[in-house]
Amino acid sequence: MTTRQAFEDWIETLRMERRLAPRTVSEYRRKAWAALEGLDELTALGIKRAINKLAEERNWSPGSVYQTVASVRAFVRFCLEQGYVSTSFSIPYPKVPERLPRPIPREHLVKFLETPIKPYANRYCTERDKTMFHLMLYCGLRIGETMGLDCADCDLSSNTLRVYKAKGGRQRNVPLVEPLANELYAYLLLRAGFYPLSEPALFLSSRRRRLHAGSARAAFRRHLDACGLSQYPFTPHSLRHSFATLLIEGGAEIRAIQELLGHRRIETTLLYTKVTEKHMRKEIDKHPLVGLL
What we know:
Blueprint: H1 3-16, H2 22-36, H3 44-58, H4 62-82, H5 106-114, H6 123-139, H7 143-147, E1 154-155, E2 160-163, E3 172-175, H8 178-194, H9 213-227, H10 236-249, H11 254-261, H12 266-284
Antiparallel strand pairs: 1-2, 2-3
Helix pairs in contact: 1-2, 2-4, 3-4, 6-8, 6-10, 10-12, 11-12
C-alpha cells in the first residue's frame, strides 16, 4: 500500500469512525500531508527532515511545527495499528513557548455587555447578535459550536443547552443561568415570528440560512466598534476565555470548568489558573504601601 492510500484510509477513519468535526479533519489532512507528500517510505529521519524543510521555507512558528508533528504522529500510530508499517518509531515534539489564554479585561467586558447592539434594518439580526454573544460568554461556547446549534438543542424545560457539534466530535450539556434561559426563550419567540421553524439552525442570516462563523466574527467586530473597543485584538473566542477565567476567579471547581468547556485534558483547563495568577500578581503590585518596604 502506498503512503497516499494509507493516508486516505486514515482520513476516512477520522471522519467516519472517530467522527471528528470536518474542520478538524481538514486541519489534520493539510498539516500531515504537507510533511508526508513526496516521501517514498515512512522513516523518522525522512519525516523530520521534511518538517524542518517546510518550517524553514514557510517560516513556521513553533506552534505550527508542533501541530504538524502531532498530526504526523497520529498518522504513524494509525499505520502501526493497521500493519501498514512494521517498525515503530517516534518523532519528537519541538519545544513550544507556553501561550496563555487571553480573556477580555473585566472593564472592557462590562462595556461590551452594557453597550446596546447597533440596530440592523432587520430587528431579528439585532437580537440574534445579542443572544449569540451572551451564549458564548455565559456558556463558554466556541464559535463553531455556537453556529452549529439547532433550536432543538435548547431544552428550556431544564434550562440546558445541548452542544453536539463540539470540537473533536464530543458533545456536552451546558446549564443555562435563568436570566440567559429567559433571554433565549424570548429570542426563540422572535425568531419564530420572522423565520419558519423548518430551518433548524438556531442562528440565521438575513437570507434564512444557518449563520456562518465568518458572519458571526464580522458581527463581533461590528459590536467592538460600537463599544469603542475595535483597537483591541479581541475575538469571539475571547468570550470563551473570559467565561473560564471569571469562573475560576469566582471559585468554581476546575473539574466542573473542564466539563463546561468540553476539554478532554485537565491540563488545558489549568492554563486558566495561570491567567488568574498572573492577574493577581499584577494587582498586588498596586498595594499602596509597597514603596515603604
